[in-house]
Predict the 3D structure of the following.
Amino acid sequence: MTNDELWKAVLGEMELSLSVANFTTWFKNTSVLSKDKNTVVVSVPNGFIKEWLENKFNKKILLSIRNLAPEVREIRYAVGRPKLELAKHDFSNIILERELEDRSDSEVGKDVDRNTNLNKKYAFESFIVGSNNELAHAACLAITKNLGKLYNPLFIYGGVGLGKTHLLQAIGNKILNESNSRKLLYLSAERFTASILEALVNRSIEDLKSKYSQLDLLMIDDIQFIAGKEKTQDIFFSTFNELYGQNKQIILSSDRPPKAIPALEERLRSRFEGGMIADVGIPDFETRLAILKQKSHEKSYDFEEETLVYIATHIQKNVRELEGALNRIGAFSQIYNRTPDIKEVKNILNTYLSSPYRKTSPQLILKTVADFYSISSNDLTKRSRKKEVVKPRQVAMFLLREETKLSFPEIGQKLGGRDHSTVIHACEKIKSEVSVDEPLKQELVLIRERVYNSFDK
Ligand code: ADP
Ligand code: MG
């Protein structure tokens, strides 16, 4: 039996046990690269897929391989794609891959340290300082030299994609580089919440509290998400006091200042305001250009200055979008094996600026969600409480919130005139479930992928 035949058989089996969407997402463009006595090496198109196959499908794949080749003991997954296949690879796939890489910022991914949740790619060295983030940057840097003694807590706030996570992670990385005996932990508020839920279920909440209280530095990203969650706020409050009392550092980030976080307990608000508060704002042109140069350098892109200037002129509000534009131009270079000229750059960027990825239309999201769950778009707006439609409806609300600029009341309107509190509830529910519910997380990846992929159609 050749490697190809072996893999075909495995794929056949996988296909039977998975939905079409799932199967295509995780197994498209995979193959057996080599097989020696005990080990099979499977080639996968990117790190994201590698991780899923390793963590979610490995057992199944191994079983299936051993049915045909019982001597096999281990499967390894290698990221790699034969150059030839690249041309066939569709534009949107490359972009999606890059975007997933960029997005896998702090939570998942092979580069994230499992003990601290830190990703080494976020460093002070790669952070561009401009007037928009000078204060936050200086405060973060100062903290690393005076842990627990200078400002406690440090509270960084600002809009999406403006570098908050980057700064928090950079602090952690710098401290670890200087002395790896420090105990530190980075958590998104969602993960923090999930860990508490889990500990409550396992009756290990005291262990968890004691673990947190032994840290030298606790960083919680997007702390606004604990608002309205009573138990989480409770445990956060006691952890905070415990750490604070021992002069241990706490760093928080949020998309808005403490006083603008609704449903946050007063005792927490006053704690947040008790240290140093610094904001990050929208970068000016020079800073945007410098960021583009930095990112090009990191990704080994070699674009004309004119190209970078064009991007920096047309994208202003979000650093992640600067990277998105850069990725698109990078994908073009990868496919055509040359750098695009300025006319092509304008074309790529114009498509990007009007792309559903950036400006996903609510209709597209509603339709994609409905299709995904095999219900009609009408079902999403109707007043039914059937289980088959309640979850898709909540997912639609969540994605509308994440992918479009619609407000909660506007989303309620789009979904059959529902109250904004219903929308907020749905968004929070999905948001917190996603960190503990793998299938749901996977569904969201797939739905988003379909939305982004309709970009080129
Ligand atoms: P936030 O947490 O505020 O939503 P992130 O920290 O995730 O934003 O930043 C989004 C992306 O933009 C990341 O890839 C980050 O590295 C990059 N970025 C943001 N600000 C800067 C900066 N000043 N210099 C370099 N990269 C930046
Ligand atoms: Mg962030």
